[in-house]
Design a protein that fits this description.
Strand content: 35-45%
Structural class: alpha+beta
Oligomer: single chain
Number of helices: 3
Low-confidence stretches: 1-33
Length: about 220
């Protein structure tokens, strides 16, 4: 087995060209560093199916609670007393790779990762999680409130192996390390999803608009 190593712009891509057992194959001349693929090109071939890919030796990181983000409309209290209303909310959390590119929609990437994690850890990995519900929220006069949510998050690190039927960029096999960040089941490593009500004081422009709504008999206003 002949090995050729290429380092491209710090991405540490490893190139390996081989001949199948029992066959004599003409080896292509190893490609120069600037002639090799980028990680994005290799993963694009994995997603499209042009490359026969696997995600090898997956390692799950410790789960943690992600950042809070707004998941509801906003409630503007235009009255002179506390305003309470039931607000619906919805949140969809996807997955991104080490370059910040989504791996949630389209292609084979999510399925390949799930297959690898399932085989190694005996439980499925999901590239996307959607949750929705409603919550009673109380907003003080002159304030605006909304609902925020934080998702339990986890990373999975491994190495993409891309195999081509014919040499591409001078080789049959290419390898690229990657880390995927995505949603984890509630309770993973003792971490739990969180939903909370957040409020702030209205701006002058919001108060002026709110006063006009209050004159029309609206105690509070719901806006996106």
């Amino acid at each position: 087995m002949t090995k050729s190593r290429t380092i491209r712009h710090g991405s540490r891509l490893l190139a390996l060209s081989t001949a199948s057992l029992g066959l004599v194959a003409a080896m292509a001349i190893p490609a120069a560093a600037d002639d090799g693929p980028t990680p994005e090109q290799l993963k694009a071939d994995c997603a499209s199916g042009e490359g026969k890919c696997s995600f090898n030796e997956p390692t799950l990181g410790k789960a943690y609670l992600g950042d809070f983000r707004r998941v509801s409309n906003s409630l503007y209290n235009c009255s002179t007393s506390d305003a309470t209303q039931s607000m619906g909310w919805s949140d969809t959390v996807g997955s991104t790779d080490s370059a910040g590119v989504s791996v949630t929609a389209g292609g084979n990437i999510a399925g390949i990762i799930d297959l690898s994690v399932t085989a190694t850890y005996s439980h499925t990995w999901s590239s996307s999680h959607t949750e929705n519900s409603s919550l009673n929220m109380t907003v003080k006069p002159g304030e605006v409130g909304w609902i925020s949510r934080a998702q339990v998050t986890q990373t999975v690190s491994g190495t993409w192996q891309t195999h081509y039927d014919s040499p591409k960029w001078g080789h049959y096999f290419w390898y690229v390390p990657d880390t995927i960040t995505g949603p984890a089941p509630n309770g993973t490593d003792g971490q739990n999803n969180a939903v909370t009500v957040k409020t702030r004081t209205m701006t002058t422009a919001e108060k002026n608009s709110c006063s006009a709504d209050a004159q029309k008999g609206k105690a509070f206003v719901v806006k996106r």
